[in-house]
Design goal:
The protein is an alpha+beta fold. It folds into 2 domains: 2-36; 39-171, OB fold (Dihydrolipoamide Acetyltransferase, E2P). It has 5 helices and 7 strands; from the N terminus they run H-H-E-E-H-E-E-E-E-H-H-E. Strands 3-4-5-7-6 form a 5-stranded mixed β-barrel. It is globular, with a radius of gyration of 23 Å.
Length: 172
Amino acid sequence: MKAKLIAALFLFGAGVACNSPEKKQEETTAEPEMETSAIEEKDSTVFGESFDIGQAKQPEMVLANLQPQDSLNATIRGTVKEVCKAKGCWMTIDLGNEESMRVTFKDYGFFVPKDIAGKEVIFTGQVKYTETDVETLRHYAKDEGQTEEEVLAITEPEQSYNFVATGVKLVD
């Protein structure tokens, strides 16, 4: 009986020793760093999930046949027009002809730097042609730094292209 108790205590002690606080600390800090920080790759920086840039297309090629309420998965290369000044939680991509497409990030899971306006990016995810409600448009206007008057002047929903990205790659 005494031998069984000693063996049980030995196994318990070995199990505790294998899960030392130092090891747990390394395990808990390794994963969040990968999820929240940018990953350096050759000549670019990736935010969110890594992806293959080989299939990247210009926005007009992807959006040409997209009908209202349709959606499709795509990888697009474009120039950043604006970025959320509060957190970097969205960006707009220049479509030409004074049009733009808003890009948000899946599950609010990552952000991009706030100073990338004018830079080229490649991003992957899902694009939709949808209606954005007034409340959301006002939120975006506040993020852009518009005045209270300009924000309150938004009274109609807007039909536009919206992209939910799972990954964004800054191109150097």
